[in-house]
Amino acid sequence: MNNPLPPQLIILIGGLLIPLFKGKLRLVYMLALPLFAFFNYLKLEEGIYWTYSFLSFDLVLGRVDKLSLIFLNVFIVITVIAVIYNSHVKGKMEHFSGFLYAGSAMGVILAGDLITFFIFWELLTVGAAFLILVRKSSRSLGAATRYLLVHVVGGLVLLAGIVLYINENGSADFGHIGLNGISSYFIFFGFGVNCAWPIVHSWLSDTYPESTAGGIIFMATFTTKAAIYALLRGFPGEPSLVWIGVGMATFPIFYAVIENDLRKVLAYSLINQVGFMVVGIGIGTGLSMNGSAAHVYSDILFKGLLFMSVGAVMHQTGKVKATELGGLFKSMPFTGTCCMIGAASISAFPLFSGFVSKSIIMSSAAEGNRPIVWLALLFASAGVFHHAGIKIPFFAFFSHDSGIRVKEAPINMRIAMGITAVGCIAIGIFPDQTIYPLLPFEAPVYEPYTLAHVTGQTLLLLFSALAFTLLLLGGIYPAEIRAINIDSDWIYRKGGKAFYAVMDKSLNYINALAYKSLIAGVTNNLCKMAKEGPTRAMILILTPIWEVSGVSAEQQTDLKKNLRNHVENGVFPIGITAFLSVVLLGILFFF
Amino acid sequence: MSDSSHKSKTAKAIIVGLFITCALGALVDLLFLSDSFDKHAAFEWENWPGFYAVYGFVACVLLVLVSKYILRPLVMRDEDYYE
């Protein structure tokens, strides 16, 4: 047992066997898998593991360096937490989909070449789509279809890029790619779809809120963070990423303010947080990219915690809209407290995880002397506090009393939320002992706890809270309305219908025309000819004979009728057959 | 969201507490006017007293106003819009 086993295969292959277990034994088995994967993770050292050959390419299942290790670490940790949170779920399919999703995400992180990378990248999409499907509603079926649609398009673009790239370079190694040439643009865009860049982002806010209470922990973690990993690996320091990231960090917060579905609010703030990471990759210094990696770690925990607490509310009350919730703190104090810890972490309150990781990115923007980027990110920081930090806990647990009285969340959910909450605080208070040793790039150690920084950040948040309070008291804060807000998914949701209508009208018209002229016209006439041709020919030959032999017109009509019947049935009286044979022989003889 | 939701004593206490904390925070910020505290400012405006407080407040007010009066009229639809 000195050679570590591939953690991604432990999760993937082990996940296949989940349906064989039942009850408590299944829970033990499902917990054992990620723990065993973590045990193997601990044995990994930097280097290359588990190589194989395919189509004359040497492929690598395990490229281990500090960058892949930090992602692998947090992916396994969140899998353990999600297993605990989901342990009350009876459906095998949901557990299996979660493991498929988690295992493929780990496979993406560990892939040392673009072919292995692409295989796991596509499995990731399949796992996510299954996880949406297990909710078994018509809405989730629609959402899963749209999810697949967007990601299959993104995946095909990525595949085209990878094929071109391997063709150009003669090697499938996945290292620094950099934007030069058409192949790299394809790969860049393929990563961008999964990263939820502006305009292609809407798959995330559209489909995540349709997943199950626990499934969304996986969703909030793997797809976007695997894309962040891919960008860190392939396009570090790509300048356009700074502005893409600023777009991601700012525009979703406007949507989050007016959104009624609390999980959709969190989905928008997920894009906002990923935006910070993308900015860090774009700046491209050791410090900024360490900030991105650190923010991946803390975001997976605090966003997971927020989704878990809202999921617990959904599980207990069956409701998730701000208009239907409120006043739940007395019923669910533990969940409410965890929600506020998650909210404080995402808002980057001092002593919570976001304060450490987000500050590294902010500070590297300042060091690179990028005032506009810095001001935009500061705006996004105030905004995220406003919608995720205040709005989520306020509308779920406080605000007006909705009259809902429920029990506290089940014990397994509370344990999962408790562990995650401790993680958020531990990173916030002891960054040196928790997250700093994991950071992948060479950079000076960043000290977040200076008096100036703590005061500045606290003031920013306090006065954002003040603004929220005054706007609420003054009646200016937009009332929650039972409504939806259209986003760029409109393009394919309504556009899809319009496309269908246009295709329906045009193609069906061509179809009808073709039927009319070819099937009903030409073919029908051909059939008619084949069917009636012989009769007509015979009548043409026989009529003069009948006329000569003096058969009356009435008799002729009868004879014609008989003849038709005979021809249609393929039977002739012997006399006619003999006559026709003579005619045929005559024709053959003379010509 | 109506006024009735803010009538409870706890809510009032929290609001008053927030006002006081904000005021105290603003006072702490004034400490940096003396030379014995350094802001390690990367940008000039970070040295302006109350910069973070004003920025946070204005940012949130703008965020809400833009969302409510510009974005919402553009994008809001009935819940069954896509059905």
The secondary structure category of chain A is mainly alpha
Largest sheet of chain A: 2 strands, antiparallel
Described by strand count, sense and barrel closure, the largest sheet of chain B is:
none
* Structure class of chain B: mainly alpha
Tell me what portion of residues of chain B adopts beta-strand conformation.
under 5%
How large, in whole angstroms, is the Cα Rg of chain B?
20 Å
Shape label of chain A? elongated
Topology, element by element:
The complex is a heterodimer of chains A (591) and B (83).
Chain A: H1 7-16, H2 23-43, E1 47-54, E2 57-64, H3 66-85, H4 92-110, H5 114-133, H6 138-169, H7 182-195, H8 202-207, H9 215-234, H10 240-258, H11 262-283, H12 286-317, H13 333-346, H14 353-367, H15 371-397, H16 411-429, H17 451-473, E3 484-485, H18 490-548, H19 553-569, H20 574-590
Antiparallel strand pairs in A: 1-2
Chain B: H1 9-31, H2 51-75, E1 76-77
Structure description:
The complex is a heterodimer of chains A (about 600) and B (about 80). Chain A is mostly helical and about 600 residues long. Chain A has 3 domains: about 1-230, no CATH class; about 235-480, no CATH class; about 520-590, no CATH class. In chain A, about 70% of the residues lie in helices and about 5% in strands. Chain A contains 20 helices and 3 strands. Chain A has helices spanning about 5-15, 25-45, 65-85, 90-110, 115-135, 140-170, 180-195, 200-205, 215-235, 240-260, 260-285, 285-315, 335-345, 355-365, 370-395, 410-430, 450-475, 490-550, 555-570, 575-590, and strands spanning about 45-55, 55-65, 485. A two-stranded antiparallel ribbon of chain A has the order 1-2. The radius of gyration of chain A is 34 Å and the shape is elongated. The N and C termini of chain A lie far apart (about 95 Å). Chain B is an all-alpha fold and about 80 residues long. Chain B folds into 2 domains: about 1-50, no CATH class; about 50-85. Chain B contains 2 helices and 1 strand; from the N terminus they run ααβ. The longest helix of chain B has 25 residues, at about 50-75. Chain B is flat and about 65 Å long. The chains are: A mainly alpha (about 600), B mainly alpha (about 80). β3 of chain A pairs antiparallel with β1 of chain B, so a sheet runs across the interface.
